[in-house]
């Protein structure tokens, strides 16, 4: 079956999010009994910093996507944690301005995927899988005031350190139950899945 003329671009805030979406797309690829792909190309780009949604995305999109694939219909996803808005040190983002610039440079549609409050909260949706990877029992109560600190405390129980980025996340994310996380975060992730696939 021929694929539609869609190009899916996912811009992530950091390497942790990048690894998650790469694994999520692998999971979607295994659901051939449920979904038919309706895209021709999918590209994931790590921005390495929240502020780069403002400073780099429009320029990178124009040079790396729009000019290279002018015949494709570009669907742009901006994936980031919502906790960044709690800290004054983070640069404010005028999303309307970013979207307007992307549309001007050739985007067909722009979407936002917001991890509430951070991507680590999504990892904790599969606490069983995470603890199995760490070879520790599931604690009766998680220690920490946010997802990052809670995961950090779990890693310490296994004599490991949790660090954002590729080095740590590429080891454990493949062990998580992506179908479980997809179900629990379906309201947010549905935008991406429906843009990439149609149900059979």
Instruction: Determine Rg (CA atoms, Å).
Output: 18 Å
Largest pleated sheet: 4 strands, parallel
| Number of DSSP-assigned strands | 6
Q: Counting H and I runs of at least 4 residues, what is the number of helices? A: 10
Helical residue percent band: 40-55%
Number of domains: 1
Main-sheet strand order equals 3-1-4-5
Strand content: 15-25%
Shape: globular
Stretches where pLDDT is under 50 for at least 5 consecutive residues are none
Mean pLDDT: 91
Kindly, what is the distance between the CA atoms of the first and last residues, rounded to a whole number of angstroms? 12 Å
> Could you state the order of secondary-structure elements as H and E?
EHEEHHEHEHHHHHHE
Helices and strands: which structural class?
Answer: alpha/beta
Describe the structure.
- The chain has 200 residues and is α/β, with parallel strands linked by helices.
- The protein has one domain (6-199).
- Helix content is 44%, strand content 18%.
- It contains ten helices and six strands.
- The chain has helices at residues 15-30, 52-55, 57-66, 95-104, 119-123, 127-134, 147-157, 166-172, 178-184, 186-196; strands spanning 6-12, 35-37, 41-46, 73-81, 109-115, 197-199.
- It has a four-stranded parallel β-sheet, with helices on both faces.
- Helix 3 packs parallel to helix 4 and helix 9 (178-184) packs across helix 10.
- The longest helix is centred in the first third of the chain and has 16 residues, at 15-30.
- It is globular.
- The relative contact order is 0.19.
């Amino acid at each position: 079956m021929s694929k539609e003329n869609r190009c899916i671009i996912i811009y992530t805030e950091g390497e942790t999010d990048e690894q998650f979406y790469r694994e999520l797309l692998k999971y979607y690829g295994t659901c051939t009994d449920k979904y038919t792909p309706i895209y021709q190309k999918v590209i994931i780009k790590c921005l390495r910093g929240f502020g780069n949604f403002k400073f780099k995305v429009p320029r990178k999109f124009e040079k790396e996507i729009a000019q290279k694939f002018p015949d494709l219909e570009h669907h742009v996803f901006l994936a980031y944690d919502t906790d960044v808005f709690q800290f004054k040190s983070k640069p404010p983002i005028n999303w309307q301005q970013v979207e307007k610039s992307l549309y001007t440079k050739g985007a067909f549609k722009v979407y936002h995927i917001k991890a509430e409050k951070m991507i680590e909260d999504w990892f904790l949706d599969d606490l069983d899988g995470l603890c199995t990877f760490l070879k520790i029992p599931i604690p009766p109560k998680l220690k920490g005031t946010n997802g990052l600190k809670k995961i950090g405390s779990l890693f310490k129980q296994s004599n490991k350190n949790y660090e954002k980025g590729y080095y740590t996340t590429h080891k454990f994310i493949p062990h998580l139950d992506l179908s479980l996380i997809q179900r629990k975060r379906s309201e947010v992730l549905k935008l991406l899945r429906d843009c990439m696939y149609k149900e059979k």
